[in-house]
Amino acid sequence: MPTWGEIYEFTRSKYNLSVEEPERFALIWAYDDGRSQQIFCRRFEAFNQEMIEFRTPVCKENEMPHTVALRKNSEFAIGALVLENGHIFLMHNALLRNLDMEEFELPLHVLARTADNLEKDFSSGNDDY
């Protein structure tokens, strides 16, 4: 099972990072249609366990009704919509010790694509994130 440092180095070697800090990094997915989506990965501890958080912005709070966000949560295989500081994010947490590199990359791809699709639907098609 990889350490935070190993995941960080793997990601740095495979992708261009837009944010590099000791406990978090971010990368930007670029799609063929010209759209992009930034996703953040952060190391944190909970329940005496090392965890990783995947988080990507979707839209401003007033662009998606909260009841719609709650209904959308039931449709996701991974991740959930969360509200923070006036923005809605798609977020997923995982135990770091349980991840292999494939299990690390899957949320990156799925969350980025899902968030970008939601952004198209709820932010007038803007590509703000």
Structure description:
With 129 residues, this protein is α+β, with helices and mostly antiparallel strands. Helices cover 32% and strands 38% of the residues. The chain has 3 helices and 6 strands, in the order αββββαββα. It has helices at 4-14, 66-73, 101-122, and strands at 17-21, 24-30, 36-46, 49-60, 80-84, 87-95. Strands 1-2-3-4-6-5 form a 6-stranded antiparallel beta sheet. The chain is globular. The chain starts with a helix and ends in a 7-residue tail after the last helix. The mean pLDDT is 94.
Concise synopsis of the structure shown:
This protein has helices at about 5-15, 65-75, 100-120, and strands spanning about 15-20, 25-30, 35-45, 50-60, 80-85, 85-95.
Biggest sheet details = 6 strands, antiparallel
DSSP strand count: 6
Strand order of the largest sheet: 1-2-3-4-6-5
Overall 3D shape: globular
Key attributes of the depicted protein:
129 residues, alpha+beta, Yope Regulator, Chain: A, 3 helices, 32% helix
Layout of helices and strands, plus pairs?
Blueprint lengths: L3 H11 L2 E5 L2 E7 L5 E11 L2 E12 L5 H8 L6 E5 L2 E9 L5 H22 L7
Antiparallel strand pairs: 1-2, 2-3, 3-4, 4-6, 5-6
